[in-house]
Amino acid sequence: MRRRRDDRPWIIAHRGASGLAPENSRQAFEVAIDVGADWIETDLRMTADGHIVLFHDDRVGAEQVSRLTLAQLRSRREAPVERWDDILPELAGRIGLDIEIKHPGFEAAVVASLKAEAPEGSFLVSSFDERVLRKVRRLDRSVPTGLILTAHGRGGRLLRGGRSACSLLRHAAADVLIAHAAAIGGRWASAVRRAGIPWHVWTINAPAQARQMADAGAWGIVTDRPDLILDAFPS
User: Fold this and answer.
1) pTM value?
2) Is residue 1 part of a domain?
3) CA-CA distance, 39 to 83, in Å (whole number)?
């Protein structure tokens, strides 16, 4: 994975520019590219008939996405439901890709497609689920991985300092921490920086907070509004 920029953190468009267009849609990704985002983040799930789709929630109403076919899923949504096999060729090489795998079971297909389509150094596989990251590491040690942290649980334990962060990374086979903004305080950022751990923060939509996270050492800022956050870092 590419190192932090010298002038500012990477600006990572959350589900594309989801504050400006429907999340995880072609439109959201194209807007992110147009406004100058460095990366996009998107969510992958697998449908009952084996399609990898860009979809955040695990349910549509009371129905689990994993138990719906692609056609059924699309019929229950007004917003677009994109297929990974269609979107990846359109984005690869144009913008960095932070690919969040939402559940185990299709890691090999994602890794194979990224290795075939996307330039080296232009993608990251992330997940809340450590099983996913360990599977990716077993499949191909060259694929960078990111462990996503909530404000509590693992994120809270990180407040104990850099040793805890290092332990989490090793256990999850991860290269980068992707922490919820509420988990980050001055002690957290200082400890992680002393340990030499790359970290991203989600989800930041206020320019002042983005500048604060940049000063704390964030490598990447995940945002619904890449246009606003980019304005916080005039070139």
Assistant:
1) 0.94
2) no
3) 19
